Amino acid sequence: MKPATPSCLVPSDIPFRLWTPDERQASLEDALRDWRKGEDVWVFGYGSLIWRPEFDFLERRKATLRGHHRALCLWSRVNRGTPETPGLVFGLDRGGSCQGMVYRLHGHAVRERFTALWQREMSTGSYLPRWLNCATGEGPVRALVFVMNRASPSYIAALPDAEVVAIVRRASGKYGPCTDYVMQTAQALKEAGIHDLRLQRLARLLEAAEEALPES
Description:
Its EC number is 4.3.2.7. The protein has 216 residues and is α+β, with helices and mostly antiparallel strands. Helices cover 31% and strands 30% of the residues.
């Protein structure tokens, strides 16, 4: 396993580059190479796609993906942090399982929806788009899943809770504070009846840290 990035590492020392539109398009085309035009597709959401999918869908189901687990394993230098003060966002790291949501997209809207989805999720190429089987109460579905690319310089292996809390609390980016992102995800999972014990523990630690701040 890749060792955790030491706390003393200066964030600007971490390589960071946004993908070009051509790189994103090539990745999208590769993901759709076996898709038949007009065929509905499923997309698996495990983080912000649960509470902010930003696309219309025909159906949504609770689903379980095996072989990967939800983790704050991706440095965010744009959406929930900056190059100087990166935040952490969720990725699907190897091992275990993950409960989330699958969304069925209308086949005639796939290219339009996927173009927007790639702009959102593949800005740096830190994820690997994969078609994986997900278990649902109504039967298995094959869904597009963005799994963590461990070869990406933005990947970060598991850190101690105290360090994760410190990183999350100090970071903020284009979409707002990293704390809001983590807490909104925890709340969305709770409302969906999805139990993620590690995330629940981090949410409690973040709440406790907030309550410990002195009154102004």
